[in-house]
Each structure stands twice: as C-alpha cells, then as structure tokens.
Amino acid sequence: QVQPVESGGGLVQAGGSLRLSCAVSGRTFSNVVMGWFRQAPGKDREFVARITWNGDFSYYADSVKGRFTIFRDNARNTVSLQMNNLKPEDTAIYYCAVGYGGSSLKNYNAWGQGTQVTVSS
Hints:
- By secondary structure, the chain is mainly beta.
- The chain contains no helices and 11 strands.
- Helices cover 0% and strands 51% of the residues.
C-alpha cells in the first residue's frame, strides 16, 4: 500500500511562490508515476503535473507550464511542486497521487488528503 501526504499549502499574493511537498509512506516501484492534481470550488479535479518515480520524465498541464516545476527527492521519498508566479485561478485544493498512467484521474489509485492553496489578487 502507498499513502501520499501533502503539505505546504497556504495563502499567497498573486505573483508569489509556494512549494508543495508530497511524502509517500508506503513502498513504491520504479515504474510508478507521481501526479499533482487540483480541484477548485464547484469544478472538477484537474491534472497539474506528473513525474515518474525515478525522475526521468515529467509533464505539465498547459495552464501551469513555465510557472510550475515538479521534482523528486529520492532520498526522502518525496515529490514536490514548486509554484511560481501564482495567479488567482490557481486557487484550489491540491492533491498528490500515485498511479501507473498519464493525466487521467482514473489511472491513479492512491491519493493524499489535499492541501489548500489560496492566491489573492
């Protein structure tokens, strides 16, 4: 079993930065994918970024490309999301997940509790 736990959410001004972290408590395998998703009030959960466990491939949603960076820290079994130039539309609950697919939610079978990110104007 794998259980992700997110941390690092908070309130920031537009244009500011925030770093989210996801710690994985259970065992993972080299072929799994770590993903970040977000869900704003009244909206569906959407893909943000993903990275392979070994860090050799990453992919971003168009809405965050160039502003967000996903990276791995294998020594601590964590995956982080560095968010720069934040916009009010980035406001959402951010979730970390473990899966074996691409950007589809159904391909991820272990989800964290979520951490709130609020960007003020």
